[in-house]
């Protein structure tokens, strides 16, 4: 009797595993975008810099991601000995939408637009 229950549990588990596989293959795998079909008109640039004198090297960075209309986002990370702060600013038509840009952010934005 116990072997019958173990066999029944194994069959149920196998069926559940197979249904999960089918769900993944038909629903989830087809909804993922193909890496090769990503738009080719995305511009990005990463610039590392040292904003503080007391930090040893270029631990801070500016990451700029733009589309073909030069709209997107700038992500800035400022690192010092005590903490790291991350800021995101919206870019629209090659300019900061609501925020003023720092010197490093402006330089990275210009390099990204020209790339």
Features:
five-stranded antiparallel sheet, elongated, 115 residues, 2 domains, 2 helices, alpha+beta, 5 strands
Output the structural class: alpha+beta
Mean pLDDT level: 76
Beta-strand residue fraction: 25-35%
Largest sheet: 5 strands, antiparallel
Low-confidence stretches: none
The topology string of helices and strands comes to HEEEEEH
User: How many distinct folded domains?
Assistant: 2
The end-to-end span amounts to 72 Å
Considering DSSP H and I runs of 4 or more, what fraction of the residues is helical? 25-40%
Largest sheet strand order: 1-2-3-4-5
Query: How many distinct beta strands?
Result: 5
Counted by DSSP, the helix tally is 2
Radius of gyration: 25 Å
Give the CA-based shape.
Answer: elongated
Describe it.
- The protein has 115 residues and is of the alpha+beta class.
- It has 2 domains: 2-32; 37-114.
- The chain is built from 2 helices and 5 strands; from the N terminus they run H-E-E-E-E-E-H.
- It has helices at 2-31, 103-114; strands at residues 43-49, 60-66, 72-79, 84-92, 95-96.
- Strands 1-2-3-4-5 form a 5-stranded antiparallel β-sheet, with helices on one face.
- A hairpin with a 2-residue loop joins strand 4 (84-92) and strand 5.
- The radius of gyration is 25 Å and the shape is elongated.
- The N and C termini lie far apart (72 Å).
- The mean pLDDT is 76.
């Amino acid at each position: 009797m116990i072997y019958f229950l173990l066999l029944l549990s194994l069959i149920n588990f196998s069926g559940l595993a197979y249904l999960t596989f089918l769900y993944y293959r038909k629903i989830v795998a087809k909804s993922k975008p193909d890496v090769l079909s990503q738009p080719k008109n995305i511009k990005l640039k990463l610039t590392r810099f040292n904003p503080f004198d007391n930090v040893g090297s270029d631990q801070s960075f500016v990451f700029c991601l733009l589309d073909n209309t030069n709209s997107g986002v700038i992500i800035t990370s400022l690192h010092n000995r005590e903490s790291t702060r991350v800021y995101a600013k919206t870019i629209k038509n090659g300019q900061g939408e609501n925020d003023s840009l720092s010197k490093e952010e402006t330089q990275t934005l210009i390099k990204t637009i020209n790339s």
